[in-house]
């Protein structure tokens, strides 16, 4: 009986050692798997935060932050996901119960769409008559003087300066006669005036037109509140001229501009943006007639 007890005890001890060894081995394997999966999930979250620009995702995996702050951002992220899920669930349930009401809720007649802005840049920016008067007033030089055409070249270089040919002004940099000259004032004084006729469907609305400096040089922005911000004087947001708007139910919403003998390029863009050099410009020549349709579209 005593021998049997000793045999049973030794057997249990060997079994216990074997079981402990297997459990440790299994635990290390599980830990390694969790570590690999955790690193992979961390990389995915970091990449998702970089691609989507969601601040909460990037802060959750930022190891430089304290663990409590990371947990806080994790709770904010989970709460946001839960809120989106609940709102989506409520909207789906509302649509399933009364789909007709969801469509009728949209008041199309009350919709207002903002008409786009137009930036007009003349091919010939300078007003030769004003430039001649300016040369006589500032430098006391007339057309019979030797420096007249040199100064006229300077004025042409200033008025026709763009982002691509601005370097042409460097040849006048050493001339002391141009050191105290305000180039923006020069452009305003001799720039070709806006003489186009503008008509709209709303006869009571005054379309705002203002000269602006763009990457294509001196241009005129039409129906663009942002052009007032680009002026020399500061403008408060409340005093910005409103753009022309059109109701969804109207069938005749238009802005018409007659160029007559003028030629140039047009850029159609948002009233709250500035014309850029990479835009899809439209070249206008004499006798050209261009018609662009404007429609208010429903977007989700």
Structure description:
With 300 residues, the protein is an alpha+beta fold. The protein contains eight helices and nine strands. The strands form three sheets. The protein has a five-stranded antiparallel sheet, with no helix packed on it. A two-stranded antiparallel sheet has the order 1-6. The chain has a two-stranded antiparallel sheet with strand order 3-7. It is elongated.
Give a quick summary of the entry:
By secondary structure, the protein is an alpha+beta fold.
If you average the pLDDT, what whole number results? 76
Count of DSSP H/I helices: 8
Biggest sheet features = 5 strands, antiparallel
List the secondary-structure elements in sequence, H or E: HHHHEEHHHEEEHEEEE
Regions with little confidence, pLDDT below 50 for 5+ residues: none
Task: Please state how the strands of the largest beta sheet are arranged side by side.
Answer: 4-5-2-8-9
Cα Rg: 36 Å
- The global form is elongated
Q: What is the tally of beta strands?
A: 9
**Proportion of beta-strand residues:** 5-15%
Classify the secondary structure makeup into a structural class: alpha+beta
Helical fraction equals 40-55%
Quaternary assembly: single chain
């Amino acid at each position: 009986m005593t021998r049997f007890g000793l045999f049973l005890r030794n057997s249990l001890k060997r079994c216990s050692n074997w079981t402990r060894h297997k459990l440790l081995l299994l635990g290390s394997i599980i830990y390694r798997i969790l570590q690999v999966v955790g690193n992979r999930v961390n990389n995915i979250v970091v990449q998702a935060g970089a691609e989507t620009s969601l601040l909460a995702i990037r802060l959750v995996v930022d190891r430089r932050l304290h663990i409590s702050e990371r947990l806080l951002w994790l709770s904010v992220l989970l709460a946001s996901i839960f809120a989106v899920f609940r709102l989506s669930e409520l909207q789906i349930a509302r649509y399933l119960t009364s789909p007709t009401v969801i469509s009728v809720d949209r008041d199309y007649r009350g919709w207002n769409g903002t008409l786009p802005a137009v930036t007009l840049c003349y091919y010939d920016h300078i007003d030769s008559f004003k430039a001649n008067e300016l040369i006589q007033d500032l430098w006391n030089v007339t057309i019979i003087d030797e420096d007249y055409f040199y100064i006229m070249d300077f004025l042409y270089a200033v008025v026709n300066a763009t982002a691509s040919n601005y370097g042409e002004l460097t040849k006048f940099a050493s001339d002391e006669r141009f050191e105290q000259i305000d180039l923006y004032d020069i452009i305003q004084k001799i720039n070709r005036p806006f003489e186009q006729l503008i008509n709209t469907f709303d006869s009571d609305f005054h379309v705002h037109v203002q000269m602006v400096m763009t990457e294509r040089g001196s241009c005129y922005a039409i129906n663009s509140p942002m052009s007032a911000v680009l002026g020399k004087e500061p403008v408060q947001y409340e005093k910005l001229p409103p753009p022309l708007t059109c109701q969804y139910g109207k069938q005749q919403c238009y802005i018409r501009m007659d160029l007559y003998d003028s030629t140039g390029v047009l850029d159609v863009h948002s009233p709250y943006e500035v014309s850029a050099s990479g835009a899809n410009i439209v070249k206008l020549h004499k006798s050209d007639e261009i018609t662009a349709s404007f429609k208010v579209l429903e977007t989700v």
